[in-house]
Design a protein that fits this description.
- The chain is built from 5 helices and 23 strands.
- The protein has 394 residues and is mostly beta strands.
- Strands 2, 3, 4, 5, 6, 7, 8, 9, 10, 11 and 12 form an 11-stranded antiparallel sheet that branches. It has an 8-stranded antiparallel β-barrel with strand order 1-16-21-18-19-20-17-23. Strands 13-14 form a two-stranded antiparallel ribbon.
- The two termini are 22 Å apart.
- It is elongated and about 95 Å long.
Length: 394
C-alpha cells in the first residue's frame, strides 16, 4: 500500500561529453626536503630515459658533540643505510651505487629542482665489492653499503668548532651525493624511491676508543632530520631509438591529444579538459555521477610488474594544485578504465554549495613522488571519456 501511495521516483540519465582536452606538463618541481627521493636510472618506453641522484646533509644530533678524538683507536666500518620504499624498472639488473662527498653545502630555500646539478669531489666512497644494488624480488626495507673508513675518521676528528651546531657541521661536512650507474650501457636498470626520514636511513660509524685503558666499541649514527637540507634531481631524455616517446610527441602535436593522453608522475604530466551539457542537469537528488575514462587502445603491452600503470588518479577542478577544496574524488580502475565517483561534489554544485567547474584536471596521486603512468583515450578516440549523471526525476 505504501508503494502505491508513494511510488519510487523515476530516474533521468544524462551523458555529458568531455571536450577541449589538452595535456599539462608542469615545470621542473621543487625537490627540497621531499618526503621521498629517487636514485637510479631506467628506460620507460612511454616517458623516456630517466636518471636520478640524491644529495643530502646529515644531522649532527645535538650541539657541542664530542667524539674524544684523542682516544680514537680506529674506525672499524662506515655504513650508509638506505630505506628503499619502492622500485620502478628492471630490479634484476645489477647497478653500481656511487656515493661521493658534496663540495658545497646545501642551503634551505635555494630553489632545488629536478634539474639541479650538485658539485662533488668525484671520489667513489663505496667499498669495492660492496656497491651492487639489485633485487631478485623487491621487498621494501633497508639496504646497507659499506663506505671508505677514511670518511668516518674525518668526521670523528673534526675540530670542536665544526661540531658545535648543525650549521658548522654542514660547512665542514656538506653531505653526500648518492647515485647509480649500470654496469653495461646495453642494460636497463631501475629507479628506487628512498624514504629520507626513516630511522633506517642513516650514516653510521662504528669505531673504537680507549676509555680508562680499555678499547670500547662505539657507534654514532647521523640521521636526516628537519635541521637538514636534501634534494634530488631527475633527468629525462625523450628520444629512444631515434624516435620521440609519447610524452614528447604530445608536446609537439596537439592533435595527438584528441585520441590519447598520458598521465604520469615524477616529472608530472596531467590532463586538462572541460565538460559540456551542464544545461541539461537540474536541481534534483543526484543518484549517481561518474566520470568514465577509457584507456587508449594499443597500450596494454606497456604495463608490466616492472613498469606498472598508475594506482589511482586524482580529479581536481579549476586549479592545477592538489587542493582539498578543489578535489572531486580519486579514480579507481574498473577493468581497464578509470572511474571517478563525483556524486557528492556534483550534488553540491547543483545546489549552489560549490561552483560548477570550468576546467577539470587529472593527476597521478602523489604526482611528484610516484614514477607510474597510464594512457587514456581522448574525446576523438573510439572509446571517449564522458560524465554519466543519474538524477531523480522531479
Amino acid at each position: 500500500m505504501g508503494e502505491e501511495l508513494y511510488p519510487p521516483p523515476g530516474a533521468v540519465a544524462e551523458t555529458l561529453q568531455v571536450k577541449a582536452v589538452a595535456p599539462i606538463f608542469l615545470p621542473a618541481p621543487s625537490t627540497e626536503r621531499a618526503p621521498f627521493v629517487f636514485v637510479g636510472q631506467t628506460v620507460d618506453s612511454l616517458v623516456g630515459q630517466l636518471s636520478a641522484q640524491w644529495a643530502t646533509q646529515f644531522a649532527l644530533g645535538g650541539e657541542n658533540v664530542q667524539f674524544y678524538a684523542e682516544s680514537l683507536v680506529g674506525v672499524d666500518s662506515v655504513v650508509l643505510e638506505l630505506f628503499i620504499a619502492t622500485s620502478y624498472g628492471n630490479i634484476g639488473t645489477p647497478m653500481r651505487l656511487r656515493v661521493e662527498r658534496l663540495t658545497q653545502p646545501l642551503t634551505a630555500g635555494a630553489d632545488y629542482t629536478t634539474e639541479t646539478v650538485f658539485a662533488t669531489d668525484g671520489q667513489q666512497l663505496v667499498a669495492a665489492g660492496e656497491d651492487t644494488l639489485r633485487y631478485q624480488t623487491f621487498v621494501a626495507g633497508a639496504k646497507r653499503f659499506r663506505l671508505d673508513t677514511a670518511l668516518g675518521r674525518y668526521i670523528l676528528t673534526l675540530p670542536a668548532g665544526a661540531l658545535s651546531n648543525q650549521t658548522a657541521f654542514a660547512a665542514a661536512f656538506p653531505g653526500l651525493l648518492i647515485s647509480t650507474e649500470v654496469l653495461s650501457a646495453a642494460e636497463n636498470g631501475a629507479i628506487y624511491t628512498i624514504f629520507p626520514r626513516s630511522p633506517q636511513t642513516a650514516l653510521r660509524i662504528y669505531y673504537r676508543e680507549r676509555i680508562q685503558g680499555r678499547e670500547v666499541p662505539q657507534q654514532y649514527s647521523f640521521s636526516i632530520t628537519d635541521t637538514c637540507v636534501w634534494a634530488y634531481n631527475l633527468r629525462r631524455q625523450g628520444v629512444l631509438g631515434g624516435r620521440p616517446v609519447l610524452r614528447d610527441s604530445l608536446e609537439a602535436d596537439a592533435a595527438l591529444a584528441q585520441t590519447k593522453l598520458l598521465i604520469g608522475g615524477g616529472l608530472p604530466v596531467g590532463v586538462e579538459f572541460s565538460v559540456e551539457g551542464w544545461e541539461r542537469l537540474f536541481r534534483a537528488p543526484v543518484l549517481s555521477a561518474r566520470l568514465i575514462l577509457p584507456p587508449a587502445a594499443g597500450y596494454e603491452g606497456y604495463y608490466s610488474p616492472f613498469y606498472p600503470r598508475v594506482a589511482g588518479i586524482g580529479c581536481y577542478t579549476d586549479t592545477t594544485a592538489e587542493a582539498a577544496t578543489a578535489s572531486w574524488g580519486i579514480g579507481d580502475f574498473v577493468g581497464d578504465s578509470v572511474v571517478v565517483d563525483v556524486t557528492a561534489p556534483l550534488q553540491e554544485a547543483l545546489t549552489g554549495l560549490r561552483p560548477l567547474p570550468n576546467r577539470w584536471y587529472l593527476w597521478v596521486i602523489g604526482r611528484q613522488y610516484t614514477l607510474t603512468r597510464w594512457v587514456m583515450s581522448g574525446p576523438q578516440a573510439a572509446s571517449k571519456p564522458y560524465l554519466l549523471v543519474i538524477l531523480a526525476r522531479p
